[in-house]
Amino acid sequence: MSEDRHPLFLPLLVGGGLVEGFGLAASGMARPEIVLDFLRLADLGLLVVMAAAAAVVGGAVLLVTRWFDRAPLTGDPYGRREKLLDRTVLAGGALFGVGWGISGICPGAAYASLGTGNLPILWGIAGMLVGAYAQGYWRSGRDEAITTPVTSD
To answer: Rounded to two decimals, what is the model's pTM?
Structure first.
């Protein structure tokens, strides 16, 4: 990312987060009981919400990347992030899915749920923070072990 960010970068980032949070709350995706009903295939209304969101974002990405060769606020070029499907990606996806199934809420919606007054979600948010810290700690140790040269006397 570019160090010389446009002055509107942070306000637009916060504004986008607020729009997403209000959208999650208005659609019901910030209510764990609705999400759990969706996961049990009892209420597929959230499927329509997710499909509409994917269509809007997909269309925006398609148009913006055709009109501009660089991101307007950062100046960074557009490009794909290549990530291989490896065991860490599969393990992370499985852990995310288990957490979503147990709590009935994903990380983004958890913060929106907190904004709607769902204070017990603080337990879930605390668990996410502990998990993120543990993963970062494990990953930094693993990366250090991989990059540290072994020397013999």
So the answer is: 0.59
Kindly report, residue by residue over 106-148, the tens digit of the pLDDT: 787 888 888 778 888 888 888 888 888 888 888 887 766 666 6
Nearest to 24 by CA among 90, 97, 113: 113
Please name the residue that has the structure tokens 């009892």.
42
Q: And the tokens for 63?
A: 């148009």
Contacts 24+ apart (CB under 8 A), 27-34: 29/109, 29/112, 30/105, 30/109, 30/110, 30/112, 30/113, 30/115, 30/116, 30/118, 31/113, 31/116, 31/118, 32/103, 32/104, 32/105, 32/113, 32/118, 32/121, 33/104
